[in-house]
């Protein structure tokens, strides 16, 4: 990843994300709208219309299959879902004359280095944020920076999405027992980096294709811009799984007949349940084949799976009450993640395929004794690179035409965008917390 605009220090997504069409359309910097010239989309279902007679440029009105990457399509993400991604909240440096104010949180008063600013609704431009509301501690328009500041006396603020900070707070309390904003500040001070938040921080494939110099709204990646706290569609997913009968002692799947001897048959139900919880999913599948007793699996095993595999689902304690069909809930939640991230793998494969061909060409030339420093390299490379590229494109097209990927993706295509984004941010937060924990103690 090269130079990009400022991103949320927690989730890696920037603050200027376009959306269309018409009503509540905006360009990446929240003004105007996406014009015909802005977009690379040629889909027949879209149209280009003048907003008013005499307007300079026609507005691009996205249809359901729009392929524009200038803004996310309103057919695939609602205004409510995307709003938080264009808002910015910062941690700002405590100067020598900083004094507590009436609306400070305890964690701000107790912190050594920083405090929270107000929220800007107009994104981030170059290195600055405008109109922080309220102007907490008098700060209205600070500079912001993802890069390490190395404890200078005049440090830029650290930009974050408000919802990402909510998630940071939640995880910080769980892991450290308090809201450790000093830890996050120190991490940025020492490891912050313009490319993907922190030095050598693992990058996700979907971030690699979207976080460019300007955010690239690749269709299918709308979840990156979806509110991870107020998740659209989550209650609707949970509600139908709540059953009329008590679920705790019920089972999933048919019980297999025959084979009277089964060593597990004498185990009490609780022990059977505990045994399953110690096994990974593949071993449970094998056990089901080997043992008649386990041909049926208790509902509570799936409750255990939801808790163990989806620790970011805090609604579990607030919204999900027994009786619940845990098996159905687990299946639905797994598919809500873009069908187990199948679509993400698809996008990654599309991106990787030409690179694999280029790598094969490089290896072929090396085998012929021509390496990159050889004067013959350029000529040999140029002679064959077009063919390598054409081959990759033909292969991608052949797979697309066969419908193999598309069918698989569509089959499992339910997606709860906000939940998927929450999972992504939760996983990144675990890495951030690990780094905070490993920071050396700073002596004054
Ligand atoms: Zn964020
Ligand atoms: Zn379009």
What would you note in describing this structure?
With 444 residues, this protein is mainly alpha-helical. The chain has helices spanning 79-83, 106-110, 162-176, 181-191, 205-210, 234-238, 269-278, 281-290, 299-309, 315-318, 326-335, 338-367, 377-402, 404-411, 417-438, and strands spanning 19-20, 47-49, 59-61, 72-73, 88-93, 114-120, 124-125, 128-129, 158-160, 251-252, 297-298. Among the domains are: 85-205 and 426-438, no CATH class; 243-323, no CATH class; 338-414, no CATH class. It is built from 15 helices and eleven strands. It has a three-stranded antiparallel beta sheet with strand order 6-5-9. Strands 1-4 form a two-stranded parallel sheet. Strand 7 and strand 8 (128-129) form a beta hairpin. It starts with 18 loop residues before the first strand and ends in a 6-residue tail after the last helix. The site of one zinc ion has 7 residues, from loops.
